């Protein structure tokens, strides 16, 4: 007996989705909401989008709705537009042979819903629902949802052979919901991990970002355990088990990174920063004549390694620039005094300063968990100072300085390079003492600086 007879569930389908299903039913075809929207609904999460699956061929779908887009006609997908929303309607299909472990070369349409569900990646993603038939759960997805298990539909190795990205998707869903991965599925990942090398950088970056910004970002560890990290980000392996040998550092580097991921707020930039911040931390060990170990810290190569990894994974520029800056300055401890805070805001830029504080806190707390209250008080104090600086509109960048390049040219400083240097010195003086941010005084100071430079130049 098919499991889908009469499984009653409480799924709140939007009216437009019901309307699409009714329209297809009235034309004599089956139609269901399917995949992620059903999984999310059963977990009590409001789905971001609703996908539909139908026995109607794509041309019929196009003929039944006034506004459609040919999203992937070859694969049977038509997007239906209703009330400014888009709904992907895909004809029941069986996937043909796969190309490069990611896309079926061709697909065959079928009239059997179960065949369509069979081609999907995980049991929790292979459920369909409509109000007349109830839940169609041929592969026991609901049980797996209840038990918290990511399990492939059918033979896991075949599913990963079809689309290798599914191995990262397994970790992504596990990180999103805090689920375990079924043993056979894990085993198949171990076997097929090398296939990830065929997957495009963009797809890998998107999945990794989803893992990092999930509820369980430290599940990145599973990528190491399953042999996926070795293929997609081998640089990270150097951190695994790397002892920090300092009383303040309570974890090896990889564990420290996972801790900081848990400690930091959930944004794309912050999570990537923590992932990279110590990726190049290394230590050399020497043993003295008494047999005592000594550890010397290397100059950290995190920045260099992060740069390379990001260009390989094709990070967008905005994320790349922000993350690199935060990685570069993550060890800089700022004191809650105005001069220090103004300097830090200047260095990080207004847009990154709050992120910079978050990074500092997460990093420090992972190394010194017992000082939580003290650190939180310190961060509060820095934030207080920062707010006052902003409230008073004090100068924190060249843009806010009471003089600019043109003013310096007017008083006879003409060399571009000198102008840049003088402006920077004036800014440093103003960051120390905002009272000095007045045009007259700064121009005086500029003249003095140039005179001094010329004097030193002559004396050479
Ligand atoms: N490599 C993939 C990608 C998708 N699917 C199937 O297509 C559905 C829709 O895929 P997608 O929109 O990528 O994911 P969702 O499951 O909807 O999850 P989310 O939108 O949260 O990423 C999935 O549920 C799954 O049934 C699959 O079998 N194999």
From TrEMBL:
Assigned EC number: 2.7.7.72
GO terms of molecular function: CCA tRNA nucleotidyltransferase activity; metal ion binding; nucleotide binding; tRNA binding
Domain tRNA nucleotidyltransferase/poly(A) polymerase RNA and SrmB- binding as annotated: residue spans: 178-236
UniProt KW Transmembrane helix keyword: no
UniProt-recorded name of the protein: CCA tRNA nucleotidyltransferase
Main EC class the enzyme belongs to: transferase
One Pfam assignment: tRNA_NucTran2_2
GO biological process: tRNA processing
CDD domains: NT_ClassII-CCAase
UniProt keywords, alphabetically: Magnesium, Metal-binding, Nucleotide-binding, Nucleotidyltransferase, RNA-binding, Transferase, tRNA processing
UniProt similarity note: Belongs to the tRNA nucleotidyltransferase/poly(A) polymerase family.
Cofactor dependency: Mg(2+)
Protein source organism: Anaerotalea alkaliphila
InterPro entries: Bact_CCA-adding_enz_type3_sf, CCA-adding_enz_C, HDIG_dom, NT_sf, PolA_pol_head_dom, PolyA_RNA-bd
Residue span, CCA-adding enzyme C-terminal domain: 302-446
PANTHER family reported for this sequence: CCA TRNA NUCLEOTIDYLTRANSFERASE 1, MITOCHONDRIAL (PTHR46173:SF1)
Segments traversing the membrane: none
Keyword Magnesium annotated: yes
Domain Poly A polymerase head residue range list: 32-151
């Amino acid at each position: 007996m098919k499991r889908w007879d009469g499984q009653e569930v409480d799924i709140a389908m939007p009216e437009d989705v019901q309307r699409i299903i009714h329209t297809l039913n009235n034309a004599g075809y089956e139609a269901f909401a399917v995949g992620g929207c059903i999984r999310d609904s059963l977990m009590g999460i409001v789905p971001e989008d609703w996908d539909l699956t139908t026995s109607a061929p794509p041309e019929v779908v196009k003929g039944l709705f006034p506004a459609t887009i040919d999203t992937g006609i070859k694969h049977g997908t038509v997007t239906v537009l209703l009330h400014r929303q888009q709904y992907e309607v895909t004809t029941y299909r069986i996937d043909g042979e796969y190309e490069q472990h990611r896309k079926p070369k061709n697909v065959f349409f079928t009239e059997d819903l179960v065949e369509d569900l069979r081609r999907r990646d995980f049991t929790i993603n292979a459920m369909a629902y409509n109000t007349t038939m109830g839940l169609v759960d041929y592969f026991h997805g609901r049980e797996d949802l209840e038990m918290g298990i990511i399990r492939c539909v059918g033979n896991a190795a075949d599913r990963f052979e079809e689309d290798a990205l599914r191995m990262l998707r397994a970790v992504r869903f596990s990180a999103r919901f805090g689920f375990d991965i079924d043993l056979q599925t894990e085993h198949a990942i171990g076997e097929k991990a090398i296939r990830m090398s065929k997957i495009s950088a963009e797809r890998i970056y998107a999945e990794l970002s989803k893992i990092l910004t999930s509820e369980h970002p430290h599940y990145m560890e599973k990528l190491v355990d399953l042999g996926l990290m070795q293929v997609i980000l081998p640089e990270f392996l150097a951190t695994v088990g790397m002892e920090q040998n300092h009383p303040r550092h309570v974890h090896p580097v990889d564990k420290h990174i996972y801790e900081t991921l848990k400690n930091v707020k959930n944004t794309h930039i912050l999570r990537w920063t923590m992932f990279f911040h110590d990726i190049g931390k290394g230590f050399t060990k020497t043993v003295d004549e008494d047999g005592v170990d000594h550890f010397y810290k290397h100059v950290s190569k995190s920045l260099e390694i992060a740069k390379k990894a990001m260009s390989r994974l094709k990070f967008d520029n905005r994320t790349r620039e922000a993350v690199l800056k935060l990685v570069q300055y993550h060890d800089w401890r700022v004191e809650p005094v105005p001069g220090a805070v103004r300097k830090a805001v200047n260095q990080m830029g207004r847009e990154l300063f709050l992120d910079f504080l978050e990074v500092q806190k997460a990093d420090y707390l992972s190394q010194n968990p017992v000082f939580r209250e003290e650190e939180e008080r310190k961060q509060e104090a820095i934030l207080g100072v920062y707010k006052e600086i902003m409230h008073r509109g004090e100068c924190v960048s060249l843009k806010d300085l009471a003089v600019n390049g043109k003013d310096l040219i007017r008083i006879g400083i003409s060399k571009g390079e000198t102008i840049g240097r003088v402006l920077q010195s004036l800014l440093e003086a103003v960051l120390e003492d905002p009272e000095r941010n007045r045009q007259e005084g700064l121009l005086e100071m500029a003249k003095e600086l140039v005179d001094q430079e010329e004097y030193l130049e002559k004396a050479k």
